[in-house]
Design brief:
The chain is about 35% helix and about 30% strand. It is built from three helices and seven strands; from the N terminus they run H-H-E-E-E-E-E-H-E-E. The longest helix has 18 residues.
Length: about 130
């Protein structure tokens, strides 16, 4: 039984913008440069998003004093984590999973601008 991808069109749009950025800028810049470029592209396409969106973290029903900031929160449904490294390490994947669990959001996209080709990974959290 085939199932549709979660937020399929939204993901295609985001990945397409990231590919455009990677094609124009290439690799080698610091992460912040790619975030700035992505913010420009998201605004140009009128995609609802927040940069450095803060999320509360609860433990045992208690609100912890520290929060986490997702690089981007797009379409009111997707956490985007941006990296600019030669290869994505498992720590980045685990970090994104933790963000999804803490925020109760189902989909994250881990995007790496630091490799020769744009790398991305859809991460689904079922809590």
């Amino acid at each position: 039984m085939a199932t549709d991808l979660l937020f399929k069109e939204e993901c295609y749009t985001i990945i397409g913008l990231c590919m455009k950025i990677h094609t124009k800028l290439g690799r080698g810049f610091k992460e912040i440069v790619y975030k700035d470029a992505l913010e420009v592209e998201l605004k140009k396409t009128s995609i609802v998003c927040e940069r450095e969106k803060s999320f509360n973290i609860f433990y045992e029903g208690v609100l912890l004093p520290h929060k986490f900031n997702a690089d981007f929160y797009a379409f009111n449904a997707i956490i985007l984590e941006i990296k600019a490294v030669s290869q994505i390490h498992t720590d980045a994947f685990k970090q994104t999973i933790n963000y999804l669990k803490a925020s109760q959001i189902k989909l994250g996209i881990l995007i790496n601008f630091g490799a020769d080709k744009l790398e991305f990974q859809r991460i689904i959290c079922t809590y």
